[in-house]
Amino acid sequence: MPHRTRVTSGRRRIGLMAAAVALASAVSTPAAVAGTGSREDAAGRYVALGDSYVAGPFVGTLTSHTPGCLQTDGNYPHRVAAALSITLKDVGCSSAATDHVFAPQVTDGVVLGTAPPQLAAVTADATMVSIGFGANDIKTSELMGACVSLFPIGSPCQDHYVKDGVDQIALRIDATAPKFDRVISAVRTKAPHARIFVVGYPAIFPAAGGGCWPLVPVTPSDTQYLRNSFKRLNGVLAARAAAHHVTYVDTYTPSIGHDPCQAPAQRWIEPLIPAAPASVLHPNARGEQGLADALLAAVRTR
């Protein structure tokens, strides 16, 4: 079964690489869980909710948030809070899904722990809330494991997820709509005077072309499939934001040309073997700054 071998080997390769990067970061910052990055004397209060794209694993010093969340002070919420001189309550956590807005999250990072429901951080005095979820609701880690190929041929990913003309990933993406309705409504109820921002995902795959196997070990055909899938997810996030009259933050457009296939000095997202501190297929420091700039532009637009 060659396809099974490719998938199993690919999953093992990505898992080992992610573990190695995580271990290297933990060793290099053993006492890094001291700072929170909050500015308690600032005007206004910003609450950041979300997953690993919010938490920013390995792009700075670990904060005192639940260690397994791998949240760092180099992530975009900390950069935005510093630029606005606003108090920050950052509860972004790696592996978080929309369910973890309402329920505790048992984390599975370098150090295990339990993060409280993210909604608990949202209070009536919040003046700004950003929401960054979706990837874990569609089980991206499983998706990427199934899409790894040891050879740049065929479409094993699409073949796995599209059966009898039904795209299972598209169904998962469309199913996030009511989840986001619930999250946005809950945030608005708890913080009725806050400006709410739904932050989309940057270009995890090139905006055109067939990718860059083996730097990102996905076949050209599956690169197109995954690119369209993540664009569909962003479309759902934008639509739900519009339906609730809150602001959608487009991070995809400014990230074009900064995907993992670009040269190290140009990319915002790191490939299978990162050249800069970041989790695999996650933003590096340039990427977190790019996300921060996109959110700041939205904040400053009235």
UniProtKB/TrEMBL annotation:
Molecular function (Gene Ontology), one example: triacylglycerol lipase activity
SUPFAM superfamilies per the UniProt record, alphabetical: SGNH hydrolase
Annotated GO biological process: triglyceride catabolic process
Name listed for the protein in its UniProt record: SGNH hydrolase-type esterase domain-containing protein
CDD domains: SEST_like
Keyword Disulfide bond: yes
SS bond partners: 69-93, 147-157, 212-261
Signal peptide range: 1-34
Keywords assigned by UniProt, alphabetized: Disulfide bond, Signal
Species annotation: Luteipulveratus mongoliensis
Classification via InterPro entries: SEST-like (IPR037460), SGNH_hydro (IPR013830), SGNH_hydro_sf (IPR036514)
Any one Pfam family match given in the protein's UniProt record, by short name: Lipase_GDSL_2
Top-level taxon of the source organism: Bacteria
Active-site residues annotated for this sequence: 52, 282
Residue stretches making up the SGNH hydrolase-type esterase domain: 48-289
Keyword 4Fe-4S: no
